[in-house]
Amino acid sequence: MCLSIHFTLPQQSHPTASTIITPFYPSISLDILIASKRSPVGENSQFPASNSCTCPFPEGGDKGSNMSNVGVRLHIQDRYVTMDNGIVQVTLSNPGGIVTGIRYNRIDNLLEVLNKETNRGYWDLVWSAPGSKGIFDVIYGTSFRVVVENEDQVELSFTRMWDPSLEGKSVPLNIDKRFILLRGSSGFYSYAIYEHLKDWPDFDIGETRITFKLRKDKFRYMAVADNRQRCMPLPDDRCQGRCQNLAYAEAVLLVNPTNPEHKGEVDDKYQYSSENKDIKVHGWISNSPPVGFWQITPSDEFRSGGPLKQSLTSHVGPTTLAMFLSSHYAGQDLVPKFRGGEPWKKVFGPVFIYLNSASDGDDPLWLWEDAKIQMMNEVQKWPYSFPASEDFQKSDQRGNVGGRLLVLDRYASKDYMPANGAYVGLAAPGDVGSWQRECKDYQFWTRADEGGCFSINNIRTGDYNLYAWVPGFIGDYRYDVSITISSGSYIEMGDLVYEPPRDGPTLWEIGIPDRSAAEFYVPDPNPEYINKLFVNHPDRFRQYGLWGRYAELYPDTDLVYTVGVSDYSKDWFFAQVPRKKDDNTHQGTTWQIKFILNGVDRRSTYKLRVALASATLAELQVRINDPNAKRPLFTSGLIGRDNSVARHGIHGLYWLYNVNVPGAQLVEGENTIFLTQPRSTSPFQGLMYDYIRLEGPPSFNVKDEL
User: Fold this and answer.
1) Phi and psi for 257 in degrees, rounded to 5?
2) What does the alpha-carbon distance between residue 88 and residue 99 come to, in Å, rounded to a whole number?
């Protein structure tokens, strides 16, 4: 039985607002929330009291809600365009479409006034001609027009058109940036349409996003999730004399920060990355007056790589990002490449920039709670009805798919099992599992319920494959027949059956098949290189320098895991990285899995399943009972550019290898599998394992073998 919570949200009064919260998000009691607003700072609050943090929240502040009935007004000047609805005022350059100012509550400009106007709020991308280095490009419009102007809505367009005279100088895209302000809305929307016409030059696009740089004198407290929020260092703390550079440019050790409480901490923007499915709302809270600045992404459909793709969020600056495309935690596989004059068009967004404020005596963390409620409201309104571009399909132009996914693993159960919690999605037609590397088109994902039932709604028209993967089982599912979505359609798929890879009974297994290495041993960081936020935190893998702990734990010999004795949560290091030697060079490592077989069918074939959660310029070699065998039984070759170790991820892209093990290579008694990762040019090369399983031949009884 599904429960819905009905309530009216504050401030948002435009006619498309929905007041129904779906069960996909945690329930929040407004009575409790409103009562909690009165908690003084430092009491019953995670927010630091003013005497323990340099971002105090002085008294004062209002929400500006008394202006919610004012119509939207547009002011056009030679160099600027301003949208104003009485709550928020947004100023953009004309015709560039750069956000130069955001006025809200008692702050004339939320954006960093010390920056040049071109370095405050902007769309940008990184592009390259094939084989060339990436070029960073802030997208300046060359033409401005008003698309919609009435008391309920203003929508502005800033376009930059490409022509052959720009070849090699500008990315071969027509780009139309849109900004929308609605009556009664405490914030504004932005989206863009990118188009590459047929026979235009080849190019790659490595990244595109929206960037907002806020005032450092006001925005000190950052929130990315309920358990990832804190007072942040200043950008000045990353300057020479206040920090020490670490292994790569993004990571610094704060040695003389403005706030002494931050001394000895590591700052690195990648510590605040999240998976696409979790990047719904993040942002900052200012100190005077108490104001929140939040980036809300109501849908993942326009982001690349599916629900598990990791991206940047907010970080020291104070900076807030809306990431649409990036190669982070994936490498070149997630870089769209356009060849042979391929035409392409895609709508990125809209995303919502939401602003809120606290009243006298309010707990400032209420701003985060309120932002989460607003996020749920935006999710319910998706797809929005108000964007004027015909390229953004509205709800009645889209279709829906539903069904039930079952799992058949005859060695786990003779019956069909519901795919409880399965990730089920539609993405561009491709091979099994291709969705995680798909980066040009749209994707639509949901989670199956405990009975395996799923419903994917508001799918853009087009041709798709249906993909899925099920936590607890290895491999990927794909429905082999292409699915065509038309406007207003509902396709009932009925019962679908996923048969995960399986040849025989499980002899032993290591880990949990969930595409993550989080269940394995993640060490404490070097106490000289910590981020206090992640001390005793579930995401302990986000600490800096954990790769160096391997050589400290295994200074001379490598990891040895004994089936039936060892505990993978304590005895299996989360990443197989090179060992650093005394001369500061690195060497490859060989891990061992020891196990006993009481009987062996030497004429049959056993199966070793190795699921990897990440790979970075690494190689997996498998040998059986002979570590010195010249040729390994299996090698993956050089794979992966995830860089998950350096970027504090616990996974990147998923790899599954199925290795045939001849029974003749096994012996009765103790056997050893040697897993070698020989590549060692960098400390960040390596593998993260998701799950390892050895299967016996189909005809063997497990009790006879173990």
Assistant:
1) -75, 160
2) 13
Residue 57 phi, psi dihedral angles, 5° rounding: -115, 95
Residues 544/268, Cβ–Cβ less than 8 Å:
yes
Element (H, E) at 253: strand 252-254
Q: How far apart are CA 121 and CA 320, in angstroms?
A: 10
DSSP 158: E
Q: Which of 520, 450, 509 is nearest to 688 (CA)?
A: 520
Distances (CA, A) of 136 to 169, 205, 302, 439: 12, 10, 21, 19
Q: Count Cα atoms within 13 angstroms, Cβ side, for 123.
A: 28
pLDDT at 10: 37
Q: What percent of the chain has pLDDT over 90?
A: 87
Lowest pLDDT segment from 38-52, 217-231, 503-517, 572-586: 38-52
AA identity, residue 483: I
12: pLDDT confidence band, cut at 50, 70 and 90? very low
Contact status, residue 645 vs residue 573, Cβ threshold 8 Å? no
* Token representation of residue 515: 């595409």
pLDDT of residue 705: 53
pTM score: 0.90
Rounded Cα gap, residues 425 and 418, in angstroms: 17
Q: Looking at this protein, which amino acid is placed at residue 220?
A: R
Instruction: Tell me if 230 sits within 8 A of 52, measured CB to CB.
Output: no
Residues 6+ apart with CB under 8 A from 43: none
pLDDT at 18 over 90: no
- Give the containing element (helix H, strand E) for 570: helix 568-571
How does pLDDT run across 538-558, given as a tens digit for each residue?
Answer: 999 999 999 999 999 999 999
Q: Per the structure block, which two tokens stand in for 637? A: 């070759």
Cα–Cα distance list, 677 to 342, 620, 637 (Å): 39, 5, 10
Within 13 Å, how many C-alpha atoms sit on residue 15's CB side? 5
The gap between the terminal CA atoms of the chain, to the nearest Å, is: 44
pLDDT, tens digit, 9 for 90 and up, residues 362-418: 888 999 999 999 999 999 999 999 999 999 999 999 999 999 999 999 999 999 999
Question: Angle 282-574-527 (CA atoms, 0-180°, nearest 5)?
Answer: 70
Both tokens of residue 268?
A: 């690195």
**Among 557, 697, 544, residue whose Cα is nearest residue 627:** 557
Question: How much of the chain is in helix, strand and coil states, percent to nearest 5?
Answer: 10, 40, 50
Closest CA to 542 of 219, 230, 324, 221: 230
Dig out the tokens for 88 from the structure: 């928020």
Q: Does the pLDDT of residue 209 top 50, yes or no?
A: yes
Name the band, by pLDDT with cuts 50, 70 and 90, for residue 287.
confident
Report residue 604 CA to chain centroid gap. Answer: 43
Distance CA 608, CA 693 (A): 6
Q: What average pLDDT does the chain have?
A: 91
Kindly state the tokens that stand for 35: 């009562």
| pLDDT at residue 699, rounded to an integer | 75
| Of 98, 68, 101, residue with least CA distance to 85 | 68
In 3D space, the residue among 56, 41, 63 whose CA is nearest the CA of residue 358 turns out to be 63
